[in-house]
Amino acid sequence: MDDSVEPHQAIEPRAKPPRTPVFNLPGVVLATLALLAAIYAVQALILSDSGIDELFFDFGFIPLRYATSLSEQGPQLFWTPLTYSLLHGNLEHILFNGLWLMAFGAPVARRIGWVRYLVFWVLASAASAALHVALNWGDPTVLIGASGVVSALMGAACRFAFPSERRVALPTHLNPRLSIAETFRSRTVVMFMLFWFVGNILIAVGIPLIGDAGQPIAWDAHIGGFIFGFLLFSLFDRPLPEVPDSSDKSDILQS
Description:
mainly alpha, globular, Rhomboid-like fold
C-alpha cells in the first residue's frame, strides 16, 4: 500500500472585482457640483442676510441693468450673465438642480469633453439670461440658479441620448447624433420634450410642479437654455469613436 501523500496544489486567491463608484460621473460634472455646493455653503453658513443680498446684487442677473445707460452701470453688467448660474436661493433649489445636472450633464460631458462642456455652460447661461431679459426688459428682480444651463443640457441630450429602438444598445454618449428633423420622428424624444414644455407652461401660469408656489420661477430662462442646447448642440459635438460591429457585443464597453 502506497502511503505517500501528494502535495497540495497552491490555490491563488481570486482577484477582487473592481469597485463601482457610487456616483459614476465625469470629473468636470463632479467639479461643477462641488463648486455649486461650496458657493451655497458660504452663502448659507457664513454670510449674513445683508451679505447674501449683496452677493445676489453683485453676481445675480438683473434685467434692469440692461434697460439703463451703460454709464449708470457697474462691471456686474459683464459677468452676471454667467455668475447667476452658480447661485441658488435655498437648499431645495440647489438639490433639485444638482440632481438634474447629474442626470443630463454626465452624458453631455462624456460626449463633448470637459473643455467644450465649460464653453457650453458659459454660452448656455448667457442664452438663458438673454431670453429672460428680452421678456422681462427693465425688471428689477434678480435671476439666480443653474436651471437654465441644466435645461440646455436637457436640450442637448435630446439630440443623442434617446437612441432608436432598432439599434444595438450603446453607452449613452456614443449614440449617433440625431438631426433636428430626426428628433421629431422619435416618439421618445417628442414625449420627453412635450412633458418638459408642458411643465414649464404650467410654471408660467403659476402652477409649479414642486416647491413653494409663492416663489417665482424663471420659466423663460429654462426655455432659452433648452432651445440653445437643442438647436446648437452640433456646434459642440465631437466625432464619435468607431464602435465594434453589433455582432460582437462582448467588445462594447458599458458606461
